Structure formats: structure tokens, C-alpha cells
Queue: 4 jobs
Job 1
Amino acid sequence: MVAESKQAKKKLYESDYNLWLLETVKQLGNRDLDALDWEDIIDEILDLSKREKRKIESLLIKLFEHLLIWQFWQSGREKIADIGKEKSLTFDYKLSDN
């Protein structure tokens, strides 16, 4: 009987994850600890931890990318400003020659 119940829970977990989740929440709310699918709950908690770590890693990579782009943009902006000043001076010089 217990083996059949475990198989039914495993089958539900594999076939209809959302329903398994709702049933698990209901069982937790009712404090029905014997009915819980502990094996898959443990797997889900471990996967959640891995997903969160990947999410943080991904966000940190994005942050570094944006900081590098910003740094590059800032240095490029200064160079462009210098080039603009040179061109402006050259243009002013050419105007004064005429």
C-alpha cells in the first residue's frame, strides 16, 4: 500500500507538476507529513537553490558587462570631446585665415 502511494505520487510529479505542487501545498497546510512526497520535495528544494545561484551569477555577469560598457563609454566620450575640441579649433583657425 505504501509503495503504491509512493508510485502514485511519483507518477503525479512526473505527469502533472502543477497538480503535484498544489497537492503538496495542501498536504503541508494540513500538516499531513506522512502523505508528502519527500523525495521529490527534497529534489525541488535542491533545484531551487541551484536556480537561485545561477540567477545571481547571471545578474552579476550582466552587472559587470554594463559596468565595462559604461567605463568604455566614459573613456570614449572624453576622447570624442577632445577630438571635437581639436576640430573646432581647426575650423576656427581656417575661418580666421580667410
Job 2
Amino acid sequence: MNDHDHLRKSKTLHLFDFRAFEVELKRLESPDCYFKSIAVDLQKKRDFIANILHEVGLEPVIPEGGYFIMADWSAFSKKNSVEQRLPF
């Protein structure tokens, strides 16, 4: 879903979105709730990527509420300088 979905959807589809949201709000305390399950799924993926980054020597910056992950690569910056590889 993006910011422009509302421009392409029919009124009926908007009603389905609202209805689905209502259903999930009622299941909010249940482990079956989409909002709970997506957080668990994304955390597993985040931890998987973070472990790989750590294994190759990069220090991951673990997000607390987002799904973007960054890695501190400063330990490699002196070993693999971009300036040293430029042809000009």
C-alpha cells in the first residue's frame, strides 16, 4: 500500500480495508492478530540479517521500531578506501 492507493481504489475496496482493520482491532490481544504477527515476523527477519552482518564483521544498528537496518562499516573504511580504487 502506498500514499496513492486511495486514488485508484473504488469505494467498495475502501470499505473492505476499513472492515479488515476493524476485525484486526478486535483481535488485537490475540497472537493471531496481523499487527502482532507482522511484528514477530519482521523481528525474525531483522535478527537474521543482523546476525549475518555481525558474522562478516559489520556492526548492525538494530532498529527499535522500524524495519530498516544499517551497519557500521567504519572498521572496513581504512582497509577498503573508495578513494584508493578510483581511476582518476
Job 3
Amino acid sequence: MPETLGFIGLGNMGAPIAANLLKAGYGLRVYNRTAAKAAPLVEKGATLAPKPADVAQPGGIVLPARSWNALAPAEFTFPSAR
């Protein structure tokens, strides 16, 4: 099986992309501010992450699919960027 990816943002754009990644055989750890939007993906095998940082793993790939608004900087703050 291909590697597991992290995915942030399950809105109109992100949910279909994440669903296609699952169909392609990738494992997914997903995060969305509204956790209920992740339910269809979790039913298909994705793992729900309680916070954005939990979708990442050392050396892993995280795909963000969300608009940039006032909340985005808090969701995308990484120790190396401080």
C-alpha cells in the first residue's frame, strides 16, 4: 500500500481530493475544523486527527486544501517556521 498522507481541509475542494486519494489506496490522516465533515472519509478508512499537527508524521507529506483566512496562520505554524 502507498504511504499514509496527512490532509487538512475537507470542504468543497478538499473532500473530493481526499476521497480520490483513499480510492487510489493511500492511507489518510485528516483534519477539519468541523470534524463531522470527516465522517464520510473515516467510514472509508481515513483516520481523524484532533488537531492539524496530528496529521503530520516525521518525513511525511501533508496536503492543505483550505482558504487562507485569519485562522490559517494558527493551523499552519510549524516549529521550524518560528
Job 4
Amino acid sequence: MNFSPLIPVIFIEFLKTLLFNEPNLSKTPTRRDYMHLQEMKSFFMWCTFLNGGILFFWTALCIFAPHLVYRTQNFWFPMSKDSFSKMMYGFIGVFKIFFIVFNLTPYIALIIMENR
């Protein structure tokens, strides 16, 4: 079954709904409509654990098994070992910055807010 002719029609209908339907402002928001501090803390805690685990695993793999990582990636993306090392170092650095800014910092801020 070929769905490709339907994709533009569905997308256009989605845009019409998004742009031209007025939001329902008559409903007064309740407490359940907002995310509570404890829910946010739990969300960021799990994000921090999962992304921290990925960062730790990736870094450990690049430190303790660099040849395995290079051989695996070189199969799909041939490059020199020097440029591969620089690329991995850069990717791990960017991932670490994103981890600190978008996971760890909000989680610590929520812990401070809760204990205040």
C-alpha cells in the first residue's frame, strides 16, 4: 500500500489545525495540568542517570577499547586513526557539555529548590 500521496494532505491538515484553530482558553487550568516539582525532579533524575550512563559507557569504551571502536566505525566510515580520535574527543566533549547543561544542572537546581 502506497501512503506517499497522503503525506502532503495529512501535513497540510495538520498545519491548518495548528495555525487556524483557536486554542480553548475557556478551560481554567487545574493543578494536574502542571508538572509538579517532584515529577520534574524525578524526570531530570532519570534523564541524568540514563545520559550519564551513556556518557560513562562511551568514554570507557573509547579509553579501554579504542581499537574496537575504531575498527567498528571504520567499517562504515573510513578515516584515519588520528582524525577518528579527534572526532571522538570532540563528540564526547559536546555530549558532556549537553549533559551538564540540560540534565545535571536542572536536576541540581530542582534539588536545591525542594530543600529550600
